[in-house]
Amino acid sequence: RLLDSDATEFQALLATFSINITEFFRDFHFYEAFYSKIIPELYSQAQALGREVRVWSAGCASGEEPYTIALLFAEAAESLQGLRCKVIATDVSAKALDTARAGVYAQASLKNVPPEIMAKYFVRTADGKYQVSPRLKAMTSFEQGNLSTMTPPKAIDAVFCRNVLMYFDKETQNKIQTKFYQSLRSRGFFILGQSEALMGEPTRMFETVMARERIYRRKESITPSPSSPASTGNMRQQQEAA
Question: 5-34 in b/e burial notation, b at 16+ Cβ within 10 A?
Answer without folding.
Answer: eeeeeeeeeebeebebebbbbbbeebbebb
